[in-house]
Design brief:
Elements (H helix, E strand, L loop, with lengths): L3 H19 L2 H11 L7 H7 L4 E5 L2 E2 L3 E2 L9 H8 L3 E5 L10 H9 L5 E4 L5 H10 L3 E5 L5 H13 L3 E6 L14 E5 L11 H6 L9 E4 L5 H9 L4 E4 L1 H4 L4 H19 L1
Parallel strand pairs: 1-4, 1-10, 4-5, 5-6, 6-7, 7-8, 8-9, 9-10
Antiparallel strand pairs: 2-3
Bound molecules: indole-3-glycerol phosphate.
Indole-3-glycerol phosphate binds next to strand 10 and helix 10.
Amino acid sequence: MKDILNEIVDWKRRENEHLGRLFDGRELRAMVDRQCRDTPPSLARAVAESGTGIIAEFKRKSPSKGWIKADGSASTIPLAYQNAGAAAISILTDERFFGGRDEYVSMARRSGVTVPILYKNFVVDESQLFRARLCGASAVLLIAACLDMAQCAGLMRTAHDIGLEVLLEMHSEAELEYAALGPDLCGINNRNLGTFNTDVATSLALAPLLPGDAVKVSESGIGSADTVAVLRQAGFSGFLIGESLMKAESPGKELSDMINRMKKQAGTCS
Ligand SMILES: O=P(O)(O)OC[C@@H](O)[C@@H](O)c1c[nH]c2ccccc12
């Protein structure tokens, strides 16, 4: 089977080259310096301090599932997530594989989303960081499997320089060494990006090996309040949830039902 991650990263490099002909990195950086004087809301704080810890994802399509919600609107769904109690929103901005766009972040902001927004893409080049900041994101995802340690450290430095936080995604014990770079949040992806299969056991196995003071986020394959409870018990304070919400007729309502179940469970425990 062809490794999907390799295919995506190859494409990303070509796409960056093409986009770089329209605006090069230096121009984008100058635009950031001129236009972005605000301090975006902190994803790490939102996750650590919110009651739910849920980062609800706007994802219209995926390589494993195809179209999940082709007509899903970035002007209504992220805001519905926020109203349902999401701590933060994740927005897929890759177009070819996930049906996303940078504009979806600005559309969500314009619709009234004030919680932190995670810019979700396969970042391999700093021009993507500038684009993330320009469209209104608070944080970017960096994926250990796409970057060597030096590249990852460099991108993290640039992200911090322009006021973005970093959620660093890891998937295997070998990748945990990247956590020493000091990201704002440490993510464990339950999905193998080679095959796209998910298994929450990945988070449970790796959590004890992460630095004790890391803000820990479990990503992918989370579909119920029970799973969130198990992950919370294992030390996670953030839960990145996409498909199980997006495939519902009303993603906002689905999230609100899940949060109600979480609250009921917390009530029975105390
Ligand atoms: O839809 P799910 O299984 O709830 O997963 C959400 C999110 O974790 C997933 O979209 C994701 C995690 N890391 C990524 C990296 C790139 C693209 C997508 C992802």
